[in-house]
Structures
1.
Amino acid sequence: MALSKQELREIAALVEKGAYVKRSTLYVAVGVALLAGLYAGNLLTTVFTHSQQAAVHQQAPAQQVPPQQTGQILDLEEYVQKHPEEHAAWVKLGHLYFDTNQPRPAIRAYEKALQIKPGDADVLTDLGVMYRRDHQHRRAVETFDQAIAADPSHEVSRFNKGIVLYHDLNKKEEAFAAWQDLLRLNPEARTPGGTPVRDMLRQLQGQ
């Protein structure tokens, strides 16, 4: 079902209040695939299997977008053309493209949002995930660094930076450093699957 006029008015109201339609910032897809099954004693080959599966998924054609989300996207595209300065609408549009596996239009929407409200660590992190999904790996790391600079307490950006460095750029020592920085910030940090980051790091360093 497409967005109603009332929902669009609510988006505009959020902007006037200085807020935006916020979602839980997601870990990069490979991190979820990799770490949901990573437990002490697993072989590194298991890690690579999960990573390869994620890479294959990302190279596949874009998934068919459900009619409800298609309608929401079309409504928001029309809305931002009429109201190009409304940060909340651009962020919501980016999230819809994110959730329907359309990285390039998501990147466009998030970049528009950041032009209006620079330094938003959550949006920067989602943008970094989309750069990664679009195989712009170095740019993804740069964007996670921007999120960290904007909010030094931002844990997800630090975690995601490590994932891209480790799996996409093969910079393992830099990845370990990113995760160690996360642990200095929060010694109890956990992966999306619930595994302590400390255990994950210890295992990977021991391979």
2.
Amino acid sequence: MIERSPDGGAVWEQHSRVRVVPPVQPRKLAKVPFVELADGRLQGVVSSGSDIGRVYVSSIASGTHAYNCSTNNNRPCGGLYGSPCKHLRALAAEAVLQYGLDRVARYLRADVPEGADLVDCLDGSHEPAPAAMVFSRFLRHLAYLEVPDTTVPIPELHWFPAAGVRR
């Protein structure tokens, strides 16, 4: 249920912050520090298992289930051998922890029988996708983690006026 203000608008629209919905289950951020359902894709950043300084940007498109995995500077993942690599599997598993299987499957428009693995139910193939936008959002996400706690509005995050919103 959306909380409404006296003028009928949603209350969250009148503030520069939105309540963060906690993950469905606790996540360990070391392997998959960033996961999102955005731009018609399940996408995120996955840490390399072999090099601490390398990350992969992985994505699965909604509807077509086309998938891609590359380093943040667009070098293809060596594990894409005609099927999703371990980075894509880790991304999907963390998305299920963050958003729940029903929501992720609905977003990807995939039929996932009870007890089945999400990635095994996808029928897409490898299709290159840009990594820069996802990696840029990840870096911005990291920057927000360094902002000190405050009750004063932060100009960069102040998208909506605190009062007087009229439609």
3.
Amino acid sequence: MIDTENFEIGMTAVYPAHGVADVVGLETKHVGGQALRFYHLQVRGSGLKIIVPIDKAGENGMRPLAGPDEIDKMFELLRDHDVPADRQTWNRRYRNFMEKIRTGSLHEVAEVYRDLSLLRSQKTLSHGEREMLRTARDLLVGELAVARETPEDEVAEQLDSMFKN
């Protein structure tokens, strides 16, 4: 389990399904006689503000940005196009992919991106699948751009080039 109690104001984190966020505040509130501590996050790009209980941050999937080793493993996963054909119905596939995105894991999101990109080369994706592909791509691009200090358009081009026929 990742230690999520050491984020400080000004640090960058990844929050599931929202992507890269800045820690903009720390707060203690007294609820039912207990002191509870919270992170205040602001999601990059959307400006969405999220309040996360510090003691639940790890359970919720909040984590530090991916490091070079994690990014290398993610690219290995994306290069592996030898995955079994998905025979699930679109709605079951959609639910499974949503669960992976909600984990906040770089590798789970990369799997969704890879699998939907490969599926797109075989058939027309449903509207929901196209939206999920866009979401997975946006999450990957956002995190990789910040982690590698690279412009988002370069990262997007690199990801997209892995699935051109």
4.
Amino acid sequence: MDTARREQQASPGLQPAAKDALATLEREWDGVVAHRDYPMVDLDNNAAERAPRRPVVTRKNAYGSRTDDAAALAAAVWTVLGTAEKHGLNTLTYLTAYLDACGRAGGKPPQGTDLDRFLPWLASPDDLATWKQPPG
């Protein structure tokens, strides 16, 4: 593909739009082929562009946050749930387990190691397996 691009770029009488497209391809070539060495790298950034969509739509449907505290709370909740999703957890199951732990602590958030349990990178394999399941 790179060889064909170079040949086409050297062609006489190339239309300006084609020249621009080939110049962009040359400039971005390292990014285009990054997936060869790093298959986990997407070819586009669609996932990153779609990620904030749900929180934005939710905020719009709720007519905004109205206060700075409400906005901060919404940002924290979306961050926690986004992290859970990235780790393949069912967000409803995960959130239910967390709120259950809050209830067992007398309505207070877990502290210390009780809170560490809910960090996906520190959670036990049993907890992670449970939180990946749909709510029971």
